[in-house]
Amino acid sequence: MELRDLLVFGLSFVFIILWCRRCFVSGGNARKLPPGPPGWPLVGNLFQIMLQGRHFIFSIRDLRPKYGPIFTMQMGQRTLVIVTSPELIHEALIQKGTIFASRPPDSPIRLVFSVGKCAVNSAEYGPLWRTLRRNFVTELISPVRVKQCSWIRDWALENHMKRLQNEASEKGFVDVMDICRFTVCSILVYICFGAKIPDEWIKDIDSVTKDVMLITMPHLPDFLPILTPLFRKQMKRAKELRKTQMECMVPLIRKRRAFVEKRESPNEEMVSPVGAAYVDSLFSLQAPGRGHLGEEELVTVCSELFVAGIDTTTSVLQWIFYELVVNQDIQEKLYKEVVDCAGKDGFITEEQVDKMKYLHAIVKETLRVHSPAHFTLSHAATEETELGGYKIPTDVYVEFYLEWMTEDPSMWKDPSVFRPERFLDGDGVDVDVTGTKGVLKMLPFGAGRRTCPGLSLGLLHVNLMLARMVQAFKWVPVPSFPPDPAEAFAFTVVMKNPLKAALLGR
């Protein structure tokens, strides 16, 4: 214990010297950063936020009226510039997209899983990011690939409907989030590895994905690296989890590589032909600065598909069904559209879903009212620049707060009311969720060069699952589990109490 105290004292002394040097050299606020709340010596606003005992997002909501659309927070050794107005977000991500297209340094735990930022979302803006993203777009979300994988969605949704029926019969209700997670994960496993694997293996991939997302969320040492030695158990846990992740996915990668090298035909295990699975493209990919990807990098790039695709899709679906359960008139209007387009018992195709305007309006209104995230992933400037009249250095974390624009009464009529019709003939007509056209009014998936690359694929899964689930069943509340809109903040914004719904046959 004495040795540990001595270590902390020594590190603290070094930290104080470095901090003082930084203050004298920089002249305090000589860099002309945006103003912000005064902080404590050495730790800035970090402990002020922690002592409030509430999520960071609530502090941002309180600070915006006082400090305006752009302000600075000093969180330990991290300098955060918070950007909240649609005008400044548009200026940064669209007009100055190349300048704000990079990522800040990753924490030591994140680096364990990203293998030195070898991933589309975490890579710094440059050749590696361009190569990974170009391959992602070509091999996953191009029209050819989407059509090629339609049979996978049909197969998965057929099983999905059976699971819904079975669970409703056994329990009297279904856990919407849980059952949708499994289906989305199974679709992504097939798309990624082209393999049919046991349900338990799919659940293992989903489980390790959830654990990775939780352990890579910000922790105290990320803001005060001096405390890292006191959190050795956390790093040990991260390395153990990485080992579990490797053990879960490497066998799939090796089996698929052998299948590709032998140029075999699809069989009971490898159901997609050579070249049709996402991982096939990664075997021959030449990554700038890395060459051919090893198994560590392959696991990281494949895992990114699950991290980005499972939680966001299933969170949006859960919020949609919450609104349908509490607003039966909206559900009935959607059911009528589905029946008019595909018939009461007809097979719903992806082409038919594209034509369901009210369905798309419901999805957009859900993204507006229940955005999957209140912030984009952290950005960093590739060179010193200006935003809103203030200097933005390359060493700060630029955080874009998205929720303000969806709650702004000057942009939306009755913003707290869930009304899908606004996207058909109201203030939501022609709103572009990617932020590339017109005035920014909502950005559920970010904007610019670092917008979510899987946006179109995720929305396809949401739309198709929604249409088929409403066609087959009427969704109603469970008296013993009343719908509760309280939020919980994980990797995405989810329901604190997962939605339970009863199903009535149509």
From TrEMBL:
<keyword id="KW-1133">Transmembrane helix</keyword>
<keyword id="KW-0812">Transmembrane</keyword>
<keyword id="KW-0479">Metal-binding</keyword>
<keyword id="KW-0503">Monooxygenase</keyword>
<dbReference type="Pfam" id="PF00067">
    <property type="entry name" value="p450"/>
</dbReference>
<keyword id="KW-0560">Oxidoreductase</keyword>
<keyword id="KW-0472">Membrane</keyword>
<dbReference type="InterPro" id="IPR002401">
    <property type="entry name" value="Cyt_P450_E_grp-I"/>
</dbReference>
<protein>
    <recommendedName>
        <fullName>Cytochrome P450</fullName>
    </recommendedName>
</protein>
<keyword id="KW-0349">Heme</keyword>
<dbReference type="GO" id="GO:0020037">
    <property type="term" value="F:heme binding"/>
</dbReference>
<dbReference type="GO" id="GO:0016709">
    <property type="term" value="F:oxidoreductase activity, acting on paired donors, with incorporation or reduction of molecular oxygen, NAD(P)H as one donor, and incorporation of one atom of oxygen"/>
</dbReference>
<comment type="similarity">
    <text>Belongs to the cytochrome P450 family.</text>
</comment>
<dbReference type="InterPro" id="IPR051103">
    <property type="entry name" value="Plant_metabolite_P450s"/>
</dbReference>
<dbReference type="InterPro" id="IPR036396">
    <property type="entry name" value="Cyt_P450_sf"/>
</dbReference>
<keyword id="KW-0408">Iron</keyword>
<dbReference type="GO" id="GO:0005506">
    <property type="term" value="F:iron ion binding"/>
</dbReference>
<dbReference type="InterPro" id="IPR017972">
    <property type="entry name" value="Cyt_P450_CS"/>
</dbReference>
<dbReference type="InterPro" id="IPR001128">
    <property type="entry name" value="Cyt_P450"/>
</dbReference>
<dbReference type="GO" id="GO:0016020">
    <property type="term" value="C:membrane"/>
</dbReference>
<feature type="binding site" description="axial binding residue">
    <location>
        <position position="452"/>
    </location>
    <ligand>
        <name>heme</name>
    </ligand>
</feature>
